Amino acid sequence: MSFQAYLDTVETKTGLTPRQLIDLAGEKGFGTGTKAGPILDWLKTDYDLGRGHGMAIVHVITKGAKIDAKHVGSGGTHSDASDELWLDGKATNPLSS
Question: Own/partner pairs for 75-84, CB < 8 Å, 24+ apart?
Fold first, then answer.
């Protein structure tokens, strides 16, 4: 599953785009310097997200939308179309097929 697919699945499960979750995390005081544990606890408690999907959200909360380019276009299981994740909802993603 690509990184973007993880974010899209989180949106399906929670009804919230990644950007909305980032905003909610900010309201809770989570951001760049926050460790994964407290964010994962919040996501599990409020949205019943497991660790894998939670870690995708942890990444965008703490590191932003940029990912390592090594998976871009690799054709592998974790291949993404871009090194920039789309955070504004899967329905509006210009790279979706």
Answer: 77/1, 78/1, 78/2, 78/3, 79/2, 80/2, 80/3, 80/4, 81/2, 81/4, 82/4
Assigned domain for 38 exists: yes
Domain that holds residue 42: 1-66
- Domains in the chain: how many in total? 1
pTM: 0.91
The residue count for the chain: 97
pLDDT tens-digit map of 5-39: 999 999 999 999 999 999 999 999 999 999 999 99
